[in-house]
Amino acid sequence: MSELPRLIVSGILTGSIYGLLAMGLSLQYGVARVLNIAHGELVMVGAILTYTLYTGFGINPLVAAAIIGPLLFGLGFLLQITLFRGLKAWAPSQAAFEGNALLASFGLLYVISYIALLEFGAWPRRYDYLNYVVEFAGMTLRFNRIVTFAVAVVIGVAVYLFLTRSRLGRAIRATAEDPATAGLMGVNVNMVLALCFGLGALLAGVAGSLISIINPVGTTMGFRNTVIALIVVVLGGLGSIPGSFIAGIIIGIVSSLVTGYWQPVFVVPVYFGILMVLLLARPAGILGKK
Amino acid sequence: MDITRFISTHRKLLLVGVPFLIILVFLATLPLYGGFYYTRLLTTILMYVVLSVSWAMFSGFTGYMSLAPAAFFGVGIYTMGFLQNTLPFPVIIPIGGLLSFLLALLVGLVTLRLRGIYFTIFTFGLVVFMSEVVAALESDLFGRVGQHINPLPNETIFYAMLVTAVATVFAIYFIRRSRLGLAMLSIGGNEEAAAHMGVNTTRVKVLTFAISAAFMGLAGVIMAPVKVYIDPRIAFSLSYSFMPILMSVFGGMGQFYGPVVGAIIFAYLEKTLRGQFPQYFMLGFGIILILVILFLPNGIAGLVSKVQDKLGGVIAKLRKGGEAEQHANT
Amino acid sequence: MRILEGQGVTKYFGGLAAVSNMDFHVDQGEIVGLIGPNGAGKTTLFNLISAALPLSSGEIRFKGQKLNGLKPHQICKMGVSRTFQETKIFGNMPVFQNVLVGAFFGSPNRVPAEDAAREVTQALEFVELSAMSATPVKDLTLVNQKRVEVARALATKPELLLLDELMAGLNFTEISEAMELVIKIRDTGITIFMVEHVMKAIMGICERIMALHHGEKIAEGTCQEIACNKTVIDVYLGEETHAGS
């Protein structure tokens, strides 16, 4: 039973990245109302770019993350002002827009993943960074996982503070709540939507960088990360930022426990069991609002 | 009855029915002169017809985006995998359909009471879920993942798929005109109002979702012997969700022939491009989907309808112009 | 006979009571009006009756039967129908199909196709929209869209019809026509409960009026009584004073 604390800690370390993953998606849906199923592909792009920068140019992955973040922010921003704004303008209703945006992101999923496939090839690669073990409270942990945890938490807290304390953050939350009224109060809604989409992409890219530090990267990893992000987002409540982070930690712990006591193959089925029970009992999620 | 009388009263039915019968006869006799390649090609095209028409049957009418076709298709494939040595092919086919039906029923009952976005998320995850569950089952029961499917005669597979495709097209045609179709459209129009006008929205959604899943399961069983070797990654490949959606959106969901047209075009493209430009064609399809959604959201069928409307307007104007001339001359 | 009754009806949104401990009733054959400033809880009350929202506490009864826990489609089949503040028509269909939904599904028994089609034709004649039965509803003017909503509700063969701000957005002539339509509906035997802001309509056709404010019933009586009621006047004038300053 001495396994348990280690498994839980390990889960928390992984879960922090899941939380970051989900925060981006939650932001994109909560504000811009786009369920971006290509989210995982952006994570993959972040991971692959970090790998390339580290192995090709010797750039420290954490520094690479600082470069990739803004890069992906730009990409997300551009996507929103071209593709999704166009969809919004043409759509006959909100429901039609959300449906079309979803399908467009499905197309985007294939575009991004196949461009990556063509450039990078299909085989997974890995690199080692800070990959040594340390002793902590009687447990042996990999140092790189502690580092990624710390970075994820810092970024998560930063985003939370930004959304709750800053003026722009308030504008964002107002737009999420009621875009029409926010517009009347002087908020540049279009800019806010694009910013949030960009921010969501940034978080995806950075999460990808962090993932690349501890796991192998490959062009097919996008899909799986999207699924994890979706499960975490629903668990935490669509549109709730703190909910996403907490739910990420929980899912991380669940994943760790299932892998440790059972088999890795059962991880996703267990996620789904949890999701189904949750949707039956409390569809708004842990901290979500209907 | 006088033959000319018959033709004029049943004009519309004949206009659609006769070409349809001709095509049907042509397809039914294909294996005799088509050879292996064309029979296989048509089998794949018909499979996509089943998948896209059954996707449009639910998502096109109600507006609830399902990303799960790959899950139900895969269930069909693996049903064949697990039962191929215990039961004959014609028996396995309906079992595959039934299992998909039941799975969809379960998923629908849990998620269709909620907002559409949860349903969509759940269907997306379902594909991964089924893939993992089957992988777990296989490794538990057989100690390995993946299995071989016994080959079957090409003609058998083709005819089975042909019958299924015809059944699917008939199903969507009749559902569209039925009470169920009206209920689904009302849900797509405004779900709250539909409920207030007496439509049991949950029952309608779950039932239709399950019916559409059943067809996908049938297609899966039939395609399994074509694949020869299956594993969870192959059987539950996301492209079996992507392609039907691309085909339906491109073809247009407003008319029942839209998904059929889309299926034919893209199934043919996929088969022919896969050899020459293996990665590029999927990239191209992704771009096409985005472009279609942006610029032609009602698909080809929507375009045809618009053109018909415009033509109708022009013809009416010409007629009115002619009448005016007549009046002026008398 | 009391066709609709509510006792202690309450609805909370978070900590706020949108409707608070309300008792009300509607007698068969009446035209009853529900007035009050914006946010008073009028549409919420309708949503509670039609089960668009669940009750927080209290009871609503239709013809003696409790409505708690029922779903909207069940309540419709029992004989309660409604229109909506933001016209919720089926934009993807023509007028005829919109009304057909009501005809097919509004009744507790299975309706044969010809009967349903006849219902629709009659309903469209009643609201004077027969000429437009093939037009897509999204191409109609607002007043005609509202007519479609009414025809659709009538096709469900209700005994009680809830009208939510039917007159909103209509001009002077359209309001008079709508008022005539409402009376015509009542004369076929249907009881009417209507939320309205347009005073001319309320005073013109309602036999009894209830006034709501902050989720509570503040007054009830005939048009005369309400028009002279100090509380009601304060509430409305109070609104105007605030708006002025």
What does this protein look like?
The complex is a heterotrimer of chains A (290), B (330) and C (245). Chain A has helices spanning 3-32, 39-57, 61-90, 94-120, 143-165, 167-177, 179-184, 189-214, 221-236, 241-261, 267-281, and strands at residues 133-136, 139-142. With 290 residues, chain A is an all-alpha fold. A two-stranded antiparallel sheet of chain A has the order 1-2. In chain A, helix 1 runs parallel beside helix 5, helix 2 packs antiparallel against helix 3 and helix 2 (39-57) packs parallel to helix 4. Chain B has 330 residues and is mainly α. The longest helix of chain B is centred in the first third of the chain and has 33 residues, at 30-62. Chain C folds into 2 domains: 1-70 and 161-170 and 192-245, P-loop containing nucleotide triphosphate hydrolases (Rossmann fold, 3-Layer(aba) Sandwich), CATH 3.40.50.300; 80-157, no CATH class. In chain C, the strands form 2 sheets. Chain C has a 6-stranded mixed sheet with strand order 6-7-8-3-9-10, with helices on both faces. Chain C has a 4-stranded antiparallel sheet with strand order 2-1-4-5, covered by helices on one side. Chain C is globular. Chains in contact: A-B, B-C. Chain A binds chain B through residues 29, 35, 37, 83, 86-87, 90-91, 95-96, 98-100, 102-104, 106-111, 114-115, 117-118, 223-224, 226-227, 230-231, 233-234, 238, 263, 265-269, 271-272, 275-276, 279-280, 283, and chain B through 63, 65, 67, 110-111, 114-118, 120-122, 124-126, 128-129, 132-133, 135-136, 139, 238, 242, 245-246, 249, 279-280, 282-283, 285-290, 293-294, 297.
Q: What is the gist of this entry?
A:
Chain A is mostly helical and 290 residues long. Chain A is built from eleven helices and two strands. In chain A, 53% of the residues are buried.
